[in-house]
Amino acid sequence: MRLRQLVQPFLNYQITGAENPDILHIVTDSRQAAPGALFAAIPGHTVDGHAFAAQAVEQGAVALLVERRIEGIRADVPQVIVRDTRHMSALLADRLFDRPSRRLRVVGVTGTNGKTTVTHLVRHLLEVAGRRTGVIGTVGAKYGDVELPLPNTTPEAVEVHRLLRTFVDAGCSHAVMEVSSHALVERRAAGVSFASAAFTNLTQDHLDFHGTMERYAAAKSLLFARLGNAFDESAGNSPHAVINVDDPWAQTMMDATTAPILTYGLEREADIHADDVHLTAAGATLRVRTPVGVLSAQTGLIGRFNVYNALAAIAIALVEGVQLDVIAAGLASYPGVPGRCERIDGGQPLACSSIMRTRLTVSPTYCRACGNLPRDGSSSSSAAAAIAIVRNVPAWLKRRRSLPISPFLQATTRAVKIRFPFWPICGKVCRPRSPPRCANRSTGGRRSAKPSAKQSRGYRRDRRQRSRGLSDCWPRAIALR
Fold first, then answer.
1. Which residues fall within 8 angstroms of residue 109, CB to CB, at 6 or more apart?
2. Predicted confidence band at 392 (pLDDT cuts at 50, 70, 90)?
3. pTM for the full predicted model
């Protein structure tokens, strides 16, 4: 497509020069530029793409998409000047690839946790129903037997549209993608026409980027605001907002959309509600009430949080017109996501799942030594969480307090969620392995002659933890009975 034909539908741009080259593809990385490429210079958090425009031209780029005119570029290379190159590159990619999201049923899944499991489970249910589906997310993109690595949960907008075009060419009818809050704020999903969207949950995370939980929730709600006002009465074509009603931020997502809302949950009354839930080390069985009937399901997914993931996938499948018996068969045959509580069985006397680690942001964080905020003004800390599923534990192991399987995992005699100990401390002064010396006190970082009650309690707690074998870098989780 010629450059001027590509940008013709838009009004807020300027083009330098009179050339009108043929655009074959769009790139945001100057190292990927080739003859026929339009290079989009996107300002990043650490580097500015405008600094690499000359390199892109040397690589063969025939045009530039910029926010300001770049000096020193050859006169025969036109520069398209726009207000926001990231946003415009998404719209141009959608147009260049012939609007692939409108040829697919694209389902977006957002939330702090559960996006990867839900997207892969939805893909599996749709595949069982005979609908070829592609997936985009944290563990990469996949369609059929083809797997492609991705650098982000939601890649750059140009790459998103290129992948959707690939799905269309491969004969897919659906695409399921994880949509992160960063991607929504940075418009990496701009130009994508979502058929439906799902919200899993919202917990404290990414506050270094969003600042507050309110802004974090507002970023997530952008996905539901994009579902539009249109309603298609034909089966399987109307957009829906699938919401976890048990989450405290559910109402924020509901208020952001005009699309029909389908709720799911365990505790509150919901359209998709699970009761009679039985959790074991081998999975879960549940009875699900839906608007179209009752579903008795069995899944190999472990834990209560995966029951929520299964409910979200069931709701999306119903929106896409999948029958209940097909959903039940898909849940029973779902093998799980690679690296997500994947069961490990190598003939050992006990069988446990692979570790699942997630970062938990805690805000505000107070120093355990002095009870005050850190000197550097930071207000967040992180903890790691893991899940160990252990069964068939020999009797001699049950008599032990813990079993050191690895430096960061302790086996337990039953399925249990383990939270690693973490130390919110003042940073450069307070250390878990030394008596508390806090920069917040008047001593200026020197050890106080007489520690306060809070200091003493924190130090004693620290000594107790160290006596149990905890280390600074990879603390060993305490086994629970």
1. 115, 118, 119, 122, 176, 177, 178, 179, 197, 198, 200, 312, 316
2. very low
3. 0.73
